[in-house]
Design brief:
8-stranded antiparallel beta sheet, 4-stranded parallel beta sheet, homodimer, alpha+beta, about 400 residues, Thermophilic metalloprotease-like, about 25% strand, 12 helices
Chain lengths: ~400, ~400
């Protein structure tokens, strides 16, 4: 047990170091804001230690507690759900505008809010989306360096390993995390350098194609996704507005680009559950017409899903389409993480909501034909070993991009 | 064990309810900001539940982690200690200005920062004091309702009960907390109503005296504390600027008023250790001349104490003097809490630093002759069963106020 404990501690240190040095790539005298669940306090301390060693001017931790969300929904008076504390977002916006990096430690019970009033959830999510809009613009425009890393929250571990006791489940989830975040084996910095090169090469190859659209086909899916003229494929590390490199998601396996928000047609079926802010949405089936979702159903969480689509006009249109080989390390782990940070890196996916500046030819989505705008941006998985993807050229030619989940 | 656990849960609920209903006296549609250590998450959830039931519009929790302070001091580059994240204070200042109540849950390792560099501590404390000045003005001026309640932090419990295992120590500390906060026995609301009436009566009695000065005498202490002309004694519940009643400290046993910052002379010896921001300062001995501390020593933590006195001109002068009977419930518990929230309610005390508006004839210290100003306000204990206090009238008459720690 002592040896296991030592290994865990060593890997936590490597994850913290990877997050600080590669994820947000903290610079001397730069401030760091860390968002984290209270349960992650041990990992947070290690992150702070690594950040100060890298010269950080200050590490401000914004701890959160999931259970408070449920208490809010269950105990709050009916009148309060359209309010969100803008002052909390504005403080972070100010710090990020002045150069603070933002590191989010994510791990949560995927189905925490099961059974909570969907109407209250929708109102509260919209209020937070409005209060947090400026922050999402900074994040989406890479106006500062940011990153998201995972944490083996006990409730999440139990959802991934339902047959196990809590301690076992947490140990197994940590092992899966350390492996898929490339910190367990070898030198994390070298691992990530090599992997990022591969993702950049893949994005460059797709940028060379100038596809007009992608076509996804498989069980329950026959979807044509038009791409914005001049769209850029991205993946792996990103250069911020200040010219610093950061790695926004750890792990990451995707390359992604910008769909045309009025040129998406057909049907698509989700291939993995989507945990959206504490509600597990499973078995999504939607129909697009002219870019808009005109019919939506889900086996589980349908009301929360439909409320999400109704937040604003752009929430029922696409802002991102991403390709991930079915043979990605996360997919090969055989685990269903019920956590988008992982599952979106195990399968091709689409995101409803706001498009990303990084996929726009000029780096800005404002005024770009076909670029979607919305308060939200939510990824969900549509890929698997049964899905084929074709690239469609403007002149009618068709080229195979993926067959049975693998790049051709 | 199950019954013990049930009792603990019931008492935590009573403490949370007392904090919400009597402490900050939350109003429908009022926002609540809670500051709390991460270890207190269970109590915080109960506070949130009670606050929402009382109609709170939102409960924003600002969790803190003590250990991060130590990591900051130990690992930070030498250049960073004059910085504090003003954006964090400014957010709370904005929310409080718009009416949010502030509830602080306090429990900490009294000697967490032992051995840390005192110079770095002093620089960091000053930076935070400057960034937090606006917040202290809101707090000190009761421009919103606020309260501080205790939490049996394991490290604190072990300091109070050094011979015990952690679980035992925590259980014993909780019991002492529930008893001294008047939530364990009987109806907390009725208990506090009766106690506040008593404190208000004591303050009213002292206000009727119009003493010109107080004289403290006992072992190592011979101190004359001049009082500001028109000073007001206060204690117990306070009315905020908006006319709402709140109870700023739970527990509270003191009545206190405003010393004249240029009319304090003599020597005084501390009777209990002072835990100041993670450093235990013991055996303080100081000499006042013309209101100013001109000589200061301490058996432990002398460097941190002298740095505190040097923060600014007002840090070496008094801003508060308080009377507490040696027979207070906290004193009778026989425990040395090493936590000012408790120890200041077991003994007469003085505070160096900023004077309090509540003790000023017009409610404002600006422009008031003898009212001290400073970035800090730090209480330390000078009372015991061996201390006598006399009230001195302007015409030379002397009246006994306390004998051997008891009100006459």
């Amino acid at each position: 047990m002592d040896q296991l404990h030592d290994t865990l501690a060593a890997n936590l240190t490597r994850l913290a170091e990877t997050a600080v040095r590669i994820g947000v790539n903290i610079q001397p005298e730069q401030e760091l804001i860390v968002n984290a669940p209270v349960e992650a306090v041990g990992l947070v301390r290690e992150i702070a230690r690594q950040a100060y060693r890298a010269g950080a001017r200050n590490v401000s931790v914004m701890f959160n507690d999931q259970a408070l969300s449920r208490i809010h929904l269950e105990e709050g008076a009916e009148s309060i759900f359209d309010y969100a504390p803008a002052w909390r977002y504005d403080g972070v916006i100010r710090a990020a505008s002045e150069g603070a990096a933002i590191l989010t430690v994510f791990g949560a019970d995927p189905d925490l809010l099961a059974g909570c009033d969907a109407g209250r959830q929708a109102r509260s999510q919209k209020a937070h989306a409005i209060a947090g809009r400026g922050l999402r613009e900074i994040i989406g425009g890479f106006r500062t360096s940011w990153s998201i890393i995972p944490f083996a929250h006990p409730a999440w571990a139990k959802a991934v390993f339902p047959g196990r006791g809590e301690a076992d489940a947490v140990a197994l989830l940590w092992d899966a995390i350390f492996s898929t975040t490339r910190v367990r084996d070898g030198d994390p910095v070298a691992n990530w350098d090599a992997h990022v090169k591969q993702l950049h090469a893949r994005a460059a190859g797709l940028n060379g194609k100038r596809f007009d659209a992608l076509h996804f086909s498989g069980p329950g899916t026959d979807l044509r996704v038009g791409l914005v003229e001049g769209h850029l494929w991205a993946g792996g590390a990103v250069e911020t507005a200040a010219g610093r490199r950061c790695l926004p998601n750890i792990p990451t396996e995707e390359v992604f680009t910008m769909p045309h928000c009025q040129r998406v047609d057909g049907v698509v079926r989700s291939t993995k559950p989507l945990s959206y802010q504490g509600t597990l949405i499973e078995g999504i089936e939607v129909r697009f017409e002219g870019g808009r979702i005109v019919q939506a159903d889900a086996r589980n969480g349908a009301e929360v899903f439909r409320n999400l689509l109704a937040i604003d006009e752009g929430a029922a249109r696409l802002g991102e389409v991403a390709l991930v080989p079915d043979a990605s390390p996360i997919s090969r782990s055989g685990l269903l993480f019920q956590n988008t940070l992982f599952d979106e890196n195990a399968a091709c996916h689409i995101a409803i909501g706001r498009a990303l500046g990084i996929n726009a030819p000029g780096g800005e989505i404002e005024g770009l034909d076909g670029a979607n705008d919305s308060l939200v941006h939510v990824d969900w998985m549509i890929g698997s070993g049964e899905i084929d993807v074709d690239g469609l050229y403007k002149d009618g030619r068709v080229e195979a991009v993926m067959r049975q989940g693998a790049f051709v």
